[in-house]
Amino acid sequence: MKIFYAVQATGNGHISRAMTLLPHLQQYGTVDLFLSGSNANLELDAPVKYRSRGISLFYNCQGGLDYREMAKKINPVRIHREIRDLPVENYDLVLNDFDYITSAACARKKIPSVHFGHQASFQSARVPRPEKQARAGEWVLTKFVKAPYRTGYHFEKYDTGIFEPVVKKEILDANPVIKNHITIYLPSYCEIQLKALFEKFPDHRFHIFSRETKFIREEKNLVFLPVNRDLFSGSLIQCRGIICGAGFETPAEALHLGKKILAIPINGQYEQLCNAAALRNTGIRCLDRIDHSFPLHFEQWIQDKTPPVKKDYSNSIRESLDYVFSLPLRVVPEAACTLHRSPVLPC
Question: Which letter does DSSP use for residue 38 in this model?
Answer without folding.
Answer: E
